[in-house]
Amino acid sequence: MLSVGVNGYGTIGKRVADAVVAQPDMELVGVAKTRPNYEAGRAVKNGYPLYAAIEERAEKFDAADIDLAGLVEELVEEADVMVDATPSGIGAENKSLYEEHDTPALYQGGEDADLVDTSFNARANFADAAGADHVRVVSCNTTGLSRLVAPLEEEYGIEKVRATLVRRGGDPAQTDRGPINDILPNPRTIPSHHGPDVQTIFPDLAIDTLGLKVPATLMHTHSINVSLNGDATADEVRELLESQSRTFVIPEHLDIDGAGKLKEFALDAGRPRGDLWENCIWGESISVEGDDLYLFQAIHQESDVVPENVDAIRAVAETADADESIETTNDALGMGL
Amino acid sequence: MLSVGVNGYGTIGKRVADAVVAQPDMELVGVAKTRPNYEAGRAVKNGYPLYAAIEERAEKFDAADIDLAGLVEELVEEADVMVDATPSGIGAENKSLYEEHDTPALYQGGEDADLVDTSFNARANFADAAGADHVRVVSCNTTGLSRLVAPLEEEYGIEKVRATLVRRGGDPAQTDRGPINDILPNPRTIPSHHGPDVQTIFPDLAIDTLGLKVPATLMHTHSINVSLNGDATADEVRELLESQSRTFVIPEHLDIDGAGKLKEFALDAGRPRGDLWENCIWGESISVEGDDLYLFQAIHQESDVVPENVDAIRAVAETADADESIETTNDALGMGL
Amino acid sequence: MLSVGVNGYGTIGKRVADAVVAQPDMELVGVAKTRPNYEAGRAVKNGYPLYAAIEERAEKFDAADIDLAGLVEELVEEADVMVDATPSGIGAENKSLYEEHDTPALYQGGEDADLVDTSFNARANFADAAGADHVRVVSCNTTGLSRLVAPLEEEYGIEKVRATLVRRGGDPAQTDRGPINDILPNPRTIPSHHGPDVQTIFPDLAIDTLGLKVPATLMHTHSINVSLNGDATADEVRELLESQSRTFVIPEHLDIDGAGKLKEFALDAGRPRGDLWENCIWGESISVEGDDLYLFQAIHQESDVVPENVDAIRAVAETADADESIETTNDALGMGL
Amino acid sequence: MLSVGVNGYGTIGKRVADAVVAQPDMELVGVAKTRPNYEAGRAVKNGYPLYAAIEERAEKFDAADIDLAGLVEELVEEADVMVDATPSGIGAENKSLYEEHDTPALYQGGEDADLVDTSFNARANFADAAGADHVRVVSCNTTGLSRLVAPLEEEYGIEKVRATLVRRGGDPAQTDRGPINDILPNPRTIPSHHGPDVQTIFPDLAIDTLGLKVPATLMHTHSINVSLNGDATADEVRELLESQSRTFVIPEHLDIDGAGKLKEFALDAGRPRGDLWENCIWGESISVEGDDLYLFQAIHQESDVVPENVDAIRAVAETADADESIETTNDALGMGL
Ligand SMILES: NC(=O)c1ccc[n+]([C@@H]2O[C@H](COP(=O)([O-])OP(=O)(O)OC[C@H]3O[C@@H](n4cnc5c(N)ncnc54)[C@H](O)[C@@H]3O)[C@@H](O)[C@H]2O)c1
Ligand SMILES: NC(=O)c1ccc[n+]([C@@H]2O[C@H](COP(=O)([O-])OP(=O)(O)OC[C@H]3O[C@@H](n4cnc5c(N)ncnc54)[C@H](O)[C@@H]3O)[C@@H](O)[C@H]2O)c1
Ligand SMILES: NC(=O)c1ccc[n+]([C@@H]2O[C@H](COP(=O)([O-])OP(=O)(O)OC[C@H]3O[C@@H](n4cnc5c(N)ncnc54)[C@H](O)[C@@H]3O)[C@@H](O)[C@H]2O)c1
Ligand SMILES: NC(=O)c1ccc[n+]([C@@H]2O[C@H](COP(=O)([O-])OP(=O)(O)OC[C@H]3O[C@@H](n4cnc5c(N)ncnc54)[C@H](O)[C@@H]3O)[C@@H](O)[C@H]2O)c1
């Protein structure tokens, strides 16, 4: 059994914790949090040992009648692998903590690529993380792009990717995020940083990305163009994407027009939190015009990186190879819709 | 065992079907639907016998490879009680269908009050539905108001209720609903129809309601004023509301600022679809100024009527009294947060 | 001629500057700004002398090729009256600046009431500002409420006001403001601070206010209840409100359902920036139930305080009484729709 | 003087009417409307002769105390050119009306391309409309794309255009339009109809377009890729676009991040209704990677076709060539920011 600790118990951290608990070969030794909000209460109800991430604030948990198992240092000491899911930039501050205890650590997409030994996507470069001390699971958007690029690159070769990322303004509970009624080129310069981020996984890929931000909270939506090297038909590409375990090609007859119905579909299916771990690709959008492949995909920012974190734990601990790990993760979570 | 059929398998119908399945004393004999969309596929995966609501469209289910158990008439024949959860106005068209088969039927809040023998709220007037043939479970907003009025009326007596209902523009998957960037007095005339609707439950209550519509999908929010007859303190009212089984007084320390965090709280708690069956009342908002009680409550339009439908089934079938039914329903669903 | 300077040239400041220019008895001696954004460029194109509000940042204007007339101190020295329209809290920091130059100053609603000698609403308490050194023009919401309270109090006497303020999340250009998809009780405690703010104008008024924030940018909307002392009919109240110069009773036949159509109406009418200086009250919403008056009004947060600032300048300078000033302001701006 | 009539006095029609009035060589002989809403009242206040578009509803104008000048047939008879700005599909129904009176007519982008002799964009194919009886001014999005394609095609030659159109869900006053909180691939199939629409102006252009719809009302935003035939630098392209009269390259120092600030900029500049007749291209977004040009542009759906309609009137009437007409239109309106 791998002993896993999670530092930072918010949107990503709580999902990773639940996913770890679901694995046959892992044990959650605890989670660390800074403040006693509704998520802290739930961690305790779930029976997850709760550690204070910041010593000075530990008494706030007392005040809220929430029992602590200790301080984050103890959690790091106990864990075989730590998953850091703190806000962007805090992971970097925590690096020395993990190093002091000689505990390998995973970081999230909000951290810089050069903080770590390697960036990670299970489908694309699992093996690169073998035995690494510091690994970054790439962001939700980069994960979504990497899952698409990997099979297309293998099957056809890619001349160039051009992707417009229409990003959600904030997560559903982030009430201080805008915009309320606008479409923001974001960043206003082109190409955006997302392309170089994909290149941390595919160093030789030609990719230009453009980012925007809109008043929606449920999912990002990608408008994708891939100029392929080889000949392809829409049907072949569709079959290829249907054959991948973490891309869900939405069948036309479901009559799903956007993220609202996708999330409802996931909730109806009993998915925890209505999470959509897969890239959700509209079947009818997959088109080939000459060498140009086009498609739309929706990316659930809150959860697509969750199975990737689980796989990265095994990669770092060298307890499984890519295929074994992905299969175990998928089975344990209930991947597939 | 009560045999229950559900006609209209959308937002409300699918939730009522699941809730019926969860009851120890009920059996779901089937659901009827008009079109083979994602919800139809899910019904079949759930093992719910699926009936065609409209004979002419039955072949569309064939085309989508979805097996039908028959036509809605057969479902009505088989059921002890039918729950009609079709869109506003369709319930009225279906009334004769239920009468032909002598099957008592429940309707939803979108139907007119005079379609039925009695309107229904479990906490307030369960007994009125005993043995009735046609019962209307009042709308989400009226249910939310009734649950508040009942204990206050009993405990203090009510001089007058004044409520401003800030309503969500559409449900999360209703992508054709607006407004996008506006606050609409809706209806523009005052008082709105919601007050008279509450009076179908409390005929003698003085209540004036004002309605608005805003660009949000998650929950309605009520700004409530109740002029009480007796003396009350905020603490007493809070205790009273905390003692009710279907009103959830949100504790301050959860740090929940709106419907986004409320839904996340429910999803984290493992609630199916993140449903909030209870009125969600902000604890810190409960205030008394002279005779005037004020508070804010959020109402989950998609689910607060679900336990009420379950209770109404027993009320109509006369298999339990109010307290027994409410307790059974609550236990089976997992009411309480 | 009154020499007027404006410090803080944003949403409010630029409108006040334009309004001052439109007055027959005032001269705009300049505006002060901190940064050379699109508003700064426009000030210069308008021929408004532009002063640097912060000395250290003056060179940024050079870099953007925008000519400065000097530093804010010079502007204060030159002005008979300063209008401070800087962000909340900055006005307080600027107070000593105005005192040093012995220049009376107006502040906006974002400042605390106890910063000033008197809070101000032209219709309600013009005379209180006579000769004052520091006057606060109350916020957009308080201005909207005061214009309603004044005639009702005079005509009928008011027992109590209960108002639910459904507030816009941010102004149209404030892209960093949320919420995106939520309805937030804000503040979560009741009553909100708006009631006490109205009492800075009507010290003896009984008023309880409740605030919410929603994802809309165009206008606030107030759901109003006034318990009147005397007998009233809806028609009488309507006539009373139609007779006021800064309340616009929206006629039914215009078929205006919200702020979007109201703003379009104002833009079609040629109003600068589509500004609605008046309270916009839906005619069909004005209702009387027993002693309770109800109505909906929309308040244009960006502009309703503009005529009030203009009047406050004359009040402070003692160059006109309330009626004269209001008439001059209204004529110069083109009040009335 | 050219006598111009406008049939359909809504978003587009009222703007075209005002623009016609502003032209030195045109006279507005009247506008036709179906219902007496706020726009009808304004037409009369503007002194625009108002005709009933539908005879049976003429009395409704009486009821609203709005004087009619006659029926639409009389207007068509009187006009040298009619501009039809009725909702999509109604223009086609009106075609025979214009033919009966031998009055050449312009239609809007909501009509099918094969309804007319030629589709029209002033910059790209003015001459094609010479003497035509039925001309379609292409839609807001197609107009925006054509203005970009024309100079790039002339200067460099275009290998292929790939454009993702992030479209506003509805206009600001269209309160019944959604989505509220979603990003909708729309249409879900690729390529969208926008590409072929651009080909009604540039028949040989290789162009693939992808459409989405989001909860915003102010402007569309285009994420553009153009594979150029010749060598280009970002600076050259920028200069080229700055030299066009109907493309506004937004300077970085204005610090404009989206449509909200763009509209505020236009309102501050005194533009009627805050209209942005120009393509608004973010300067810092103009980038060249190899042969690929990228940029973001915002398109004001309510107004960018207005100057095109004015030019099309002259084109049809053969009273000016392209350059003369564009210059006259621009001068009369005050093009340029
Ligand atoms: N939410 C998304 O859409 C998303 C998607 C993919 C990746 N990410 C990345 O995941 C990381 C976490 O993001 P999130 O959305 O879960 O954030 P979040 O704010 O939801 O959660 C972060 C949690 O960390 C806690 N925290 C803050 N400071 C801490 C500290 N010093 N020590 C321990 N805990 C601390 C916070 O209290 C909070 O519970 C970021 O790098 C982010 O870029 C986020
Ligand atoms: N959604 C809410 O917020 C809400 C809340 C409380 C009450 N209600 C009421 O519940 C009722 C149902 O609303 P909903 O939101 O679930 O609607 P919905 O549109 O989500 O679901 C209605 C279902 O009925 C089906 N249907 C349509 N015509 C039918 C027919 N002739 N026979 C059988 N099925 C048919 C539709 O295909 C759909 O699956 C309405 O009366 C509504 O007013 C809705
Ligand atoms: N926008 C509204 O809805 C609204 C309505 C009524 C009252 N108010 C009040 O009006 C005041 C101004 O609000 P606003 O919306 O116009 O803000 P704003 O941010 O639009 O404008 C403020 C301006 O002041 C400038 N500024 C910042 N610091 C400064 C300084 N030290 N010296 C001089 N200028 C400085 C900013 O650059 C900006 O141009 C606040 O008190 C606010 O509460 C705002
Ligand atoms: N609004 C946009 O964003 C936009 C942009 C470019 C092109 N267009 C196109 O312009 C055309 C008009 O669109 P709009 O947005 O101005 O619509 P609109 O609904 O704002 O205005 C249409 C007007 O036509 C009137 N009308 C309806 N039926 C009529 C009839 N039979 N005879 C005369 N008038 C009638 C309506 O009352 C309304 O005043 C459509 O083809 C549309 O596709 C619209």
Structural classification of chain A: alpha/beta
Biggest sheet record of chain A? 8 strands, parallel
Strand content of chain A: 15-25%
CATH architecture of the largest domain in chain A: 3-Layer(aba) Sandwich
Bound molecules: nicotinamide-adenine-dinucleotide
- CATH class of the largest domain in chain A equals Alpha Beta
Comma- or semicolon-separated keywords:
homotetramer; alpha/beta; Rossmann fold; eight-stranded mixed β-sheet; 12 helices; binds nicotinamide-adenine-dinucleotide; NAD (chains A, B, C, D); oxidoreductase (chains A, B, C, D); NADP (chains A, B, C, D); DapB_N (chains A, B, C, D)
Describe the structure.
Chains A, B, C, D: Residues 2-140 form the Glyceraldehyde 3-phosphate dehydrogenase NAD(P) binding domain. Chains A, B, C, D: This is Glyceraldehyde-3-phosphate dehydrogenase. 4 copies of one chain form a homotetramer. With 337 residues, chain A is an alpha/beta fold. Chain A folds into 2 domains: 2-137 and 305-333, NAD(P)-binding Rossmann-like Domain (Rossmann fold); 140-299, Dihydrodipicolinate Reductase, domain 2 (2-Layer Sandwich). The first copy, chain A, is 34% helix and 24% strand. Chain A has 12 helices and 16 strands. Chain A has helices at 11-22, 38-45, 58-63, 72-78, 90-100, 122-125, 140-155, 194-199, 234-242, 259-268, 306-317, 322-333, and strands spanning 2-7, 26-33, 50-52, 70-71, 81-84, 105-107, 118-120, 134-137, 158-168, 184-185, 207-214, 220-228, 247-250, 279-282, 287-289, 292-299. In chain A, the strands form 2 sheets. Chain A has an 8-stranded parallel sheet, sandwiched between helices. In chain A, strands 9, 10, 11, 12, 13, 14, 15 and 16 form an 8-stranded mixed sheet that branches. In chain A, helix 1 packs across helix 11 (306-317) and helix 11 crosses helix 12 (322-333). The two termini of chain A are 29 Å apart. The model of chain A has no long low-confidence stretch (mean pLDDT 97). Chains in contact: A-B, A-C, A-D, B-C, B-D, C-D. Chain C binds chain D through residues 14, 35-39, 41-42, 45, 64, 172-175, 180-181, 217-218, 253-258, 260-261, 263-265, 267-270, 272-274, and chain D through 14, 35-39, 41-42, 45, 63-64, 172-175, 180-181, 217-218, 253-258, 260-261, 263-265, 267-270, 272-274. Bound molecules: nicotinamide-adenine-dinucleotide (4 copies).
